[in-house]
Write a structure and sequence with these properties.
- Chain A has 443 residues and is an alpha/beta fold.
- Chain A has two domains: 146 residues, Aspartate Aminotransferase, domain 1 (Alpha-Beta Complex); 247 residues, Aspartate Aminotransferase, domain 2.
- Helices cover 41% and strands 12% of the residues of chain A.
- In chain A, the strands form three sheets. In chain A, strands 2-8-7-6-5-3-4 form a seven-stranded mixed β-sheet, with helices on both faces. In chain A, strands 9-10-13-12 form a four-stranded antiparallel β-sheet.
- The longest helix of chain A is centred in the last third of the chain and has 28 residues.
- With 475 residues, chain B is an alpha/beta fold.
- In chain B, the strands form three sheets. Chain B has a seven-stranded mixed β-sheet, with helices on both faces. Chain B has a four-stranded antiparallel β-sheet with strand order 9-10-13-12. Chain B has a two-stranded parallel ribbon with strand order 1-11.
- Chain B is globular and about 65 Å long.
- Chain B starts with 5 loop residues before the first helix and ends in a 48-residue tail after the last helix.
- Helices cover 37% and strands 12% of the residues of chain B.
- The chains are: A alpha/beta (443), B alpha/beta (475).
- Chains A and B meet through α1, α3, α4, α5 and α6 of A and α1, α3, α4, α6 and α11 of B.
- Chain B: It is an enzyme of class 4 (lyase).
- Chain B: Pathway: Alkene biosynthesis; ethylene biosynthesis via S-adenosyl-L-methionine; ethylene from S-adenosyl-L-methionine: step 1/2.
- Chain B: Its EC number is 4.4.1.14.
- Chain B: Its cofactor is pyridoxal 5'-phosphate.
- Chain B: It catalyses: S-adenosyl-L-methionine = 1-aminocyclopropane-1-carboxylate + S-methyl-5'-thioadenosine + H(+).
Chain lengths: 443, 475
């Protein structure tokens, strides 16, 4: 018989557990709730909320499905499943060599063969989420700081800070120069950290940028690397959208900058990659760290024990990404389709009287709604966001959740839906803008 | 030179232990029945390889469980996109059902309390992050799995305080030992936040009896500390007495359920360490919520969730698997321990796990850990078996070794036994009666095809502590 007892005061969980640094209280996530409760469906729920806050790439799945249908060896382990046992047992934190080789090749192809990647410098993690956290554990001590240009992916607040105890100090960028990172902004951020008694251990850039949807120019990459050298700190380049640039010539990787310098200063540079965006496989949890620093590679490899990639998934992707014909075609076609989508949304927004930052990459555009704000404040932005969410029924991401210093900007994803759905979304925006024009005319 | 963190430069990764000399010997000269018959046999690896034929058959008969087959590809897109940290409902339901079946249907598990993690390795670290601050402590009964030093402490800053268990009472976890450890922590100014037990035990291969479990639950409630039950070997209990889970005990005694958390995995029970299926099951809502958010750092691949969901929801397969697995383990355990006893080697009486806790105390030159290391080096370099010395498990008494028996085929087992027998004969010739020497005339059957052997080239060369620096990827 179970005796009911009065519950004593529960023993406290850790500070990490109690803290809000997981970041889920931000409006970035609140919009999801509205979507979850009333999701748009082309057939069954045409008045539902359209999800435009999710940076997923759904435009190229048919290419993946076609590959799988034609290549059963990538599948369960082929006829008779001879490799099943070996695969199920494989937990070596070095990762499947064939998979690392395939990833290195894929990363090279994305960069047009301009740089080479050594498979032995590739460390595997379960997603870029894990990769960014892992690197932070290695590069900084609790209480230290990383400099991150704004606006930035909201998940960094959790990934870089939550369990690591490391702080983020923003490098403020603004629209006056298209949110480009300047040497002045870098220095200002560094000084700001120093004034708070924080030891800066590194800079983390996202290139191409989320949420801006644009690649960083090579002159700026050089400035950033020079700055890192000057301050003797690390440089992490999150390049998870590198395969999502609309044209191959638009993207310059930090790896190319290093190659141009004969890899001098390389030991402070680390690249994060993932297949969640370029290949549209976020569920498979495929992240990598590529470091030019041997100690970082060794330590990262050891730490990856906490977050290894399923050997089943490594096997599938090793087969797929070793097929050069497939990868060449995929990269090219994916770029073209994303470009087409981007043009479609930009034209549609323009027709509605909305401007966006000129973008050349990514799964989203950076939309400027500052003219629509009641007041040029974060509050004004959130009010507008609420209207767009609840009346226009579009879940888009407010710039404030990306730590943008200027109110009125919104990230709008366009690759996670069919063209038809995107047309519906654009129609709604158009209607909304028309109604606002009518309202302002009638005042 | 740009500096890296203290965590990175320290040795919290645990790989500096002399323990890894054994791995080196194996790596440089791995046994193969045809290519390297004098190579080192890996007995330091707690893997379950005895049921693969049974599982393979299921995999071949169920192509829809794979996303890549014609039958399964229609699920590819939605699965590839699924990154919700709640995990697939069908996956959680299947795992919850499996956990219940492994406990004989005596308890039910709620799928909504199942949180994913990067293997049990990831689960343990995640639980430590949720329950303790840096500098706080967990009590852990010795001997314990060496990986805990890394998993619970490395990045979390949590301290481990041993609960010393002794061979004099078969390493039972006594109230006195628990209290002593708790006091020791207090004296060292360490705030104890929890007690971690592994049941069935690694390395002992034993299960905790009801009274001990009840005593443990009483202890943690009195001290108001958490109880983490690592039950990753639950399905490897091959003999009476029956396994009793923490989940069953809390139905029978007064307990604050907010203190109770279970770590589970499919790496041992199913033999799928590569698939990284770790589970945290907590009775504490706040822990479930927090752990779920943290699981973002180590989610199970949706491709794997899909496969496991299909496999473990096949009741017929699961019921037969559980029985088959026990039968294979029992058979192997019985044969191995009987053969060892016939040459005078005893081991702790055990009914679970993928290993035995071998007693070589009488072979030690002296009752010291140095002598244990000396004996261990002899076993590796002369007998050519990689076994794990008790000191690496923080055993307080020298002379014990963990020896894995489920990670090899029958022929390799015979070779291992032959070597042990030969060694014992050499060591103690006078003590072995002639009639038992028939063991020495074991013949290796070489008429088997090459593919039948689990050659090192097919076996993944990894340690139970997968972070061995000596591991090279072979594929």
């Amino acid at each position: 018989m179970v005796i009911e007892i009065e519950k004593p005061s529960s023993v406290r969980l850790s500070k990490v557990a109690i803290s809000k640094t997981h970041g889920e209280d931000s409006p970035y996530f609140a919009g999801w709730k509205a979507y979850d409760e009333n999701p748009y469906d082309e057939v069954h729920n045409q008045s539902g909320v359209i999800q435009m806050g999710l940076a997923e790439n759904q435009v190229s799945f048919d290419l993946l499905e076609k590959y799988l249908e034609e290549h059963h060896e990538a599948s369960s382990w082929g006829k008779g499943a001879p490799g099943f046992r070996e695969n199920a047992l494989f937990q070596d934190y070095h990762g499947l060599k064939s998979f690392r080789q395939a990833m290195a090749n894929f990363m090279e192809q994305i960069r047009g063969g301009k740089v080479k990647f050594d498979p032995d410098r590739i460390v595997l993690t379960a997603g870029a989420t894990a990769a960014n956290e892992l690197l932070t554990f290695i590069l900084a001590d609790p209480g230290d700081a990383l400099l991150v240009p704004t606006p930035y992916y909201p998940g960094f607040d959790r990934d870089l800070r939550w369990r690591t105890g490391v702080k983020i100090v923003p490098i403020h960028c603004n629209s006056s120069n298209n949110f480009q990172i300047t040497p002045q902004a870098l220095e200002a951020a560094y000084q700001s950290a120093e004034s708070m008694d924080l030891k800066v251990r590194g800079i983390l850039i996202t290139n191409p940028s989320n949420p801006l949807g644009s690649a960083i120019q090579s002159s700026i990459l050089n400035d950033i690397l020079d700055f890192a050298v000057h301050k003797n700190i690390h440089l992490v380049s999150d390049e998870i959208y590198s395969g999502s640039t609309f044209s191959p010539s638009e993207f310059v990787s930090i790896a190319e900058i290093l190659r141009n310098r004969n890899y001098k200063d390389a030991e402070r540079v680390h690249i994060v990659y993932s297949l969640s965006k370029d290949l549209g496989l976020p569920g498979f949890r495929v992240g990598t760290i590529y470091s030019y620093n041997d100690d970082v590679v060794t330590t990262a490899r050891r730490m990856s024990s906490f977050t290894l990639i399923s050997s089943q998934t490594q096997h599938l992707l090793a087969c797929m990404l070793s097929n050069h014909e497939f990868t060449q075609n995929y990269i090219k076609t994916n770029r073209e389709r994303l470009n087409k989508r981007y043009d479609m949304i930009i034209q549609g927004l323009k027709k509605a009287g909305i401007e966006c930052l000129k973008g050349n990459a990514g799964l989203f555009c950076w939309m400027n709604l500052s003219p629509l704000l009641n007041e040029p404040t974060r509050q004004g932005e959130l009010e507008l966001w609420n209207i767009i969410l609840n009346q226009v029924k579009l879940n888009i991401s407010p710039g404030s959740s990306c730590h943008c210093s200027e109110p009125g900007w919104f990230r709008v994803c366009f690759a996670n839906m069919s063209e038809q759905t995107l047309r519906v979304a654009l129609q709604r925006i158009h209607k909304f803008m028309e109604q606002r024009k009518v309202c302002s005319v009638n005042r | 030179m740009v500096a890296i963190s203290k965590i990175a430069t320290g040795n919290g990764h645990g790989e500096d232990s002399p323990y890894f000399d054994g791995w080196k010997a194996y790596e440089t000269n791995p046994f193969h029945p045809i290519d390297r018959p004098d190579g080192v046999i890996q007995m330091g690896l707690a893997e379950n390889q005895l049921c693969f034929n049974f599982i393979k058959k299921w995999v071949m008969e169920h192509p829809e469980a794979s996303l890549c087959s014609a039958e399964g590809v229609n699920k590819f897109k939605e699965t590839a996109l699924f990154q919700d940290y709640h995990g697939m409902p069908e996956f959680r339901e299947a795992v919850a059902k499996f956990m219940g079946k492994v406990r004989g249907g005596r308890v039910k598990f709620d799928p909504d309390r199942i949180v994913m993690s990067g293997g049990a390795t990831g689960a343990h670290e995640m639980v430590a992050f949720c329950l303790a601050d840096p500098g706080e402590a967990f009590l852990v009964p010795t001997p314990y799995y060496p990986g805990f030093d890394r998993d619970l402490s490395w990045r979390t800053g949590v301290e481990l305080v041993p609960v010393v268990c002794e061979s004099s009472n078969n390493f039972k976890i006594t109230r006195a030992a628990l209290e002593a450890a708790y006091e020791k922590a207090k004296e060292a100014n360490l705030r104890v936040k929890g007690l971690l037990i592994t049941n069935p035990s690694n390395p002992l291969g034993t299960i905790l009896d009801q009274d001990t479990l009840k005593g443990i639950v009483k202890f943690i409630n009195e001290k108001n500390i958490h109880l983490i039950g690592d039950e990753i070997y639950a399905a490897t209990v091959f003999m009476e007495p029956e396994f009793v889970s923490i989940s069953e005990i809390i139905e029978e005694v007064e307990c604050n359920r907010d203190l109770i958390h279970i770590v589970y995995s499919l790496s041992k029970d199913m033999g799928f360490p590569g698939f990284r299926v770790g589970i945290v099951y907590s009775y504490n809502d706040a822990v479930v919520s927090c752990a779920r958010k943290m699981s973002s750092f180590g989610l199970v691949s949706s491709q794997t969730q899909h496969l496991i969901a299909k496999m473990l929801s096949d009741d017929d397969f699961v019921d037969r698997f559980i029985v088959e697995s026990k039968e294979h383990l029992l058979k192997r355990h019985k044969y191995f321990t009987l053969s060892l006893s016939q040459v005078g080697i005893g081991s702790l009486k055990s009914n679970a796990g993928l290993f035995i806790w071998m007693d070589l105390r009488k072979l030690l030159k002296e009752k010291t850990f140095d002598a244990e290391m000396d004996l261990w080096r002899v076993i590796i370099n002369e007998v050519k078996l990689n076994v794990s010395p008790g000191s690496s498990f923080h055993c307080d008494e020298p002379g014990w070794f963990r020896v894995c028996f489920a990670n090899m085929d029958d022929n390799t087992m015979e070779v291992a036994l032959l070597r042990i027998t030969t060694f014992m004969h050499k060591h103690n010739e006078a003590m072995v009666p002639r009639k038992l020497c028939r063991r020495a005339s074991l013949k290796l059957s070489l008429s088997r095809r090459r593919d039948d052997f689990m050659s090192p080239n097919m076996m993944s060369p990894h340690s139970p502590i997968p972070q061995s620096p000596l591991i090279r990827a072979r594929t």
